[in-house]
Design brief:
Length: 384
């Protein structure tokens, strides 16, 4: 059996093992989750716009009551995402919201942790690989530069490092070169990703030449501005026209990350909202949404589109350079949407980076989480 075939067989076996273990996992403490979700639901009532409820109803086929239920479970998952990883430490394998958003699942390599997970209102899932081990394997791929190697991410539900490549042979070469245990890996044939850059319409224009989209309003001390994608401009580049003009790129990182912030004039109004192209969405905070949560994107080319969070810490090998730490979604986007807002409920998530596909046939889009931009540059998110 050649190595390429062995990789495919071993990866498939790892996935089957993880799914089998998940299927046999004990149920979560429904009473605890119900109590937490009830508290979250009470906080949401009166603080969620009718447009958000309508949007969730249309996207997921929900009634108004079911839309509130989904938002409540996602809010609980967001809280657990900040608590459970530290609590489980080395055994932690990931956290996600079930497809129907009626359950929160937490993976662990240690069955002894099951009671602790249930006490949080989540369903424990026994898996073979800790998240830290999968992340370490992914990090070892970041230094490789192979034609046809497009990126990688961790699928917490399948407990595997997914390598995205033009074909299986390229993926096998990468895994071998990085010295990764093939049992940690599964392979996905993928399209070459591209940055969502300049094309048609306008939100803001850089150097009278190319267009991107505003992410979120921020301040650095008393200086107003907004965050966007790093590939949209370099430090010193001028925003010469559009709704956010005039402005200046103060800081920008790309590749490596894909984040920037632009300072605007002191008289420029800063809105604590995101344009839905049929209304607006208030921004209340920057609480991170869990895998499986609903999420929506706003951009100046294709407007407003929604879907779900697929994975954290995606590495993407663009033709222009490699970016790590992105979040993967199944929301569509197109060139010109770069830098635009990703938001879950009223929580800012990040800024559009790139992806593949389009909003006619569907696709995959990655965003740069907003947290690193806020912390690196001392920025304060403008909130409701």
């Amino acid at each position: 059996m050649n190595r390429q075939r062995a990789l495919a067989v071993t990866a498939a076996g790892a996935v089957v093992t993880a799914l089998s273990l998940a299927a046999g996992a004990a149920p979560a403490s429904a009473e605890i989750l119900d109590a937490k979700a009830a508290d979250a639901r009470a906080d949401l009532l009166g603080n969620v716009s009718p447009a958000l409820i309508d949007e969730l109803s249309d996207t997921f086929g929900l009634t108004e009551s079911e839309a509130y239920d989904r938002l409540a479970v996602e809010a609980v998952a967001s809280d657990l995402l900040t608590e459970v990883p530290d609590s489980l430490d080395a055994s932690y394998g990931g956290l996600w919201v079930a497809e129907g958003a009626d359950e929160i699942l937490v993976a662990t390599t240690d069955r002894a942790e099951f009671n602790e997970v249930r006490a949080e209102g989540a369903t424990p899932v026994l898996v073979e690989h800790a998240l830290a081990d999968l992340e370490a394997a992914g990090t070892s791929l970041d230094a490789l530069a192979l034609d046809g190697l497009y990126g990688h991410y961790i699928d917490v539900e399948r407990n595997t490092l997914v390598v995205e490549a033009a074909d299986e042979a390229v993926a096998a070469e990468a895994v071998d070169a990085a010295g990764i245990d093939p049992s940690l890996v599964s392979v996905t044939a993928a399209e070459a990703p591209e940055l969502y850059f300049v094309r048609g319409g306008d939100s803001y224009i850089i150097e009278n030449s190319w267009r991107c989209s505003v992410g979120f309003s921020v301040r650095q001390g008393s200086t107003p501005g907004f965050v966007t994608a790093g590939h949209c401009g370099s430090a010193g580049d001028q925003v010469t026209s559009g709704e956010a003009a005039p402005g200046t790129f103060r800081n920008s990182v790309f590749p490596g990350s894909d984040r920037a912030w632009v300072a605007v004039g002191s008289s420029e109004p800063l809105y604590d909202e995101v344009n839905m192209y049929s209304g607006s969405r208030d921004v209340a905070n920057a609480n991170q949404a869990a895998v499986g949560s609903s999420i929506c994107r706003s951009g100046s080319t294709t407007g407003w589109h929604c879907g779900t969070v697929g994975a954290f810490n995606q590495t993407v090998n663009y033709a222009e350079g490699t970016v790590t730490g992105l979040t993967r979604t199944n929301v569509c986007a197109e060139p010109g949407d770069s830098g635009g807002s990703f938001i879950t409920g009223n929580s800012a998530q990040g800024m559009t980076s790139g992806g593949s596909g389009n909003c006619s046939s569907g696709g995959t889009t990655y965003f740069q989480p907003i947290g690193p931009a806020l912390s690196a540059w001392g920025l304060t998110l403008v909130t409701t």
